[in-house]
Amino acid sequence: MIAQPRLQSRPHLLFQSPFDRRRRALLVAAAAVAALGALPGWAVAASDGFRIGIIGAGRIGGTLAELWAKAGHELLISSRHPDELKPLAARLGTNVRVGTPREAASFGDVVLIAVPYGALPQLGRDYAGLMAGKVVLETGNPRPERDGPMATPALNRGTGLASAEYLPGVRLVRAFTSVPYLALRSEAHRSGERIGVPLAADDRDALAVAARLVEDAGFEPVPVGGLARARDFDVGSPVFGRALTARELRQALGLAPNL
Known about the structure:
single chain; alpha/beta; Rossmann fold; eight-stranded mixed β-sheet; 12 helices; about 40% helix; TAT_signal; NADP oxidoreductase; STEAP_metalloreductase
């Protein structure tokens, strides 16, 4: 498990000046590079970019695909109707291809899952074996009105722990779950203090990879703790559905500020 005091004490995750922002980005990138020691060598493509499989290229998945393509990552975007994604892939460039969810699960040693939460149990049954040992960023939020009876126990337990049961064997990170997708589109790489993206994971190396991808998308990673702490930014929490700066997010979550 991630020791919460250590996560709170990392001074490089929030800086105010442009110089310190560059320094922070370098430190996050260095941590991610160190984490690559646990990934196969072919997980990293040209220019130190990741190979990322995206399962679900709707509002969240499609937005992150655009941001990560601009950052130089190699992507395979997928949905139940992959032909419908060809215009998006063509617009994003030659580093982006289209495939099925199964192909996306196989392609990336980093996988983004951005599907309605009610689809997660079946997705886990179908593809968890293909994603075993991989860093998986999972973005879904249980909503009883959409996802049915499975949503309420997932919320009661906390989505970090619930998602881990649906995706056995993966190196899970809850990420990009609480910031509205419109803010992901409009606030990426903004000047001044960046919007914070809370992260929860039990795997430090997976957390480092996720932090780099948050940075590459133009936001500020805010590690909250292990998967059990993901409930702190679940649906119904004070921070859910809000585009808060990293400083505001830490304050709202009761995390120690980084000075």
